[in-house]
Write a structure and sequence with these properties.
Elements lengths: L6 E11 L4 H12 L3 E19 L8 E6 L3 E11 L4 E11 L2 E5 L5 E15 L3 E5 L6 E5 L2
Antiparallel strand pairs: 1-7, 2-3, 2-4, 2-7, 4-5, 5-6, 8-9
């Protein structure tokens, strides 16, 4: 484990509408506002998503297991935003509910808003960190640069 101290900066409030691409919207704001790191939280609706619900196997190479839906669900979510070498990278986990059914995971296969989705970005300042490739997992993991 590693950790660093940082401080909070600006707060951005995003209001997405029906069919807005969650990742594209967050990444666009991060680029326009030069947000290098942020805490992300969201509440509202997701129309469709492709969600990682865990690895296919807890041993061996990490291969994601996906679930998809296209039936509009209520969500709560939390995540982070850090840049890789060139681009912002949103890492968010959501709990998706419809009726008595709940699905929890990371919609890294894509997610589109339903009706309204409110996202708050709480900027993190004074933190030198990036998502860098990890040779053991093959994933881009949060790395502290100093």
């Amino acid at each position: 484990m590693e950790y660093r101290s940082a401080r909070t900066g600006r707060v951005f409030v995003l209001s997405l509408r029906d069919n807005d691409d969650v990742y594209a919207c967050v990444h666009d704001v991060a680029r326009k506002e030069n947000i290098r790191a942020a805490l992300v939280t969201a509440v509202g609706g997701i129309r469709r998503a492709k969600v990682v619900v865990g690895p296919k196997s807890p041993t061996g190479p990490i291969e994601p297991e996906f679930r998809q839906f296209n039936d509009a669900r209520e969500i709560v979510a939390t995540g982070t935003l850090f840049w890789d070498e060139d681009n912002p990278h949103l890492h968010i986990h959501m709990a998706f509910g419809r009726g008595d059914t709940v699905l929890v995971g990371c919609p890294r296969g894509g997610a589109d808003a339903f009706c309204v989705l409110e996202i708050i970005l709480l900027e993190i300042l004074d933190l030198d960190a990036q998502r860098l490739p990890d040779p053991q997992t093959g994933l881009k993991l949060l790395s502290f640069l100093r």
